[in-house]
Structure formats: structure tokens, C-alpha cells
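Database export, one record per block. Field names are fixed; values are copied verbatim from the stored entry.
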Amino acid sequence: MTWDWNAVSDFMPYFWHGLLVTLQVVALGSLLSFSLGLVWALLMRVPSRWVRWPVGVVTEFVRDTPLLVQLFFLFYVLPEWGVTFSALTTGVFAIGLHYSTYTMQVYRAGIEAVPVGQWEAATALSLPRRRTWTAVILPQALRRVIPALGNYVISMLKDTPMLMVITVLEMLGRARLFSQQNFQFTEPLTVIGVAFIVLSYLASLLLRALERRLVR
């Protein structure tokens, strides 16, 4: 077997398109998971069990079922109930929802790590509850959890190939399409493997730099 550089050259247009879709899914999925995870974490601190119990059931169900099953359900079952979204929208929502149940735990740990004295100081200053959260608790909690949240971005990146099952052609989907059309598998799959390694490594470097900056 010989390496065919012409195949690599032919594959690159497919690759760039797939890379754009992959980065789009990761960016939007991260935004959704971070936002929704914070909402879950705050709702779990509401005194009423009528709020905590449903949130706990939903998040536990999502966390304990495979992402692949959730993708199939959202894309193939919901349309039978009249709820239809594009494949890309479904993929972003599925990944964002799935990982929000993990980021929720990160937020909860960050909030619980805020020293009790900070809560007591806010109470002593008679700060409103909303002001206590926005000015005292959340800024300290977020600073602690950003590196951990970044790790889930890398996990989302590595899970994007699952979106092939709902017809989203990200990097691996484009490689598969090219391979089927040209009967060349080694070159496109190798390029995709290297691309995932490079993207994951760059993301880890950014996380380390961010973590060092936050520790200062």
C-alpha cells in the first residue's frame, strides 16, 4: 500500500467543510451546555423539593442514557409527534443537553467550594439574594470551574462523529462520504485522525494557559 497525496488533495475540500461543521457544533453545543448546566445547578439549590425533584429526575435520566440513543430519539421519534428540527440543530441540542447534566455537577462543586465566610459576609452586608449570587458567589465559583468545563469541550469535540447517525456530515462524516465515492479510505481517515489529535491538543494547551491565568 502506498500513500496517495493526490487523494489527500482531493479530500481537502471535504475536510474543510466538515471541520467547519464540527467547530460549529462544538461552539454552539458548549454554549448551550454551559448555560443550561448553570440553570440546572441553580434550580437544584431551590428550597422547594417540587423544583429539585423534577430537575434531578430529568438530569439523571439524560446523564444515564447514551448520547447515541438521545440523538436517535430527537431526530427520528420527535417528528412523529410533530416536532421537527434540522439535523444540525438536533445535533447541537442533543450534545448541549447531554453535557449540561455533567457541567451541572461542575457548577455545583464550584458553588459549594465558595467559603462559608463569603455567604456570611454577604448576609452581614444585607445584600439582596440576587446581588449575593451575581456579585459574590458566581464570580468565585466560575473562576474555579472554568478549567473543568473546558475538559468537556474536548469531550464534545470527540463525540461529534456520532452526529453521522442523524445525517450531519462533520469531519468523519465527510471522510466517510469521500471514501465511499472514491474507494480510498486510508488517506481521509488518517487526515481526520490527525485533525482530532491536533484540535484536542490545541484545546488542552488553551485550557492550561487559562488555568494558569486564573490561578494568579
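Remark 1: The helical segments are 5-43, 49-64, 67-77, 87-112, 116-124, 129-159, 171-182, 186-215.
Remark 2: DSSP finds eight helices and no strands in the chain.
End of record.
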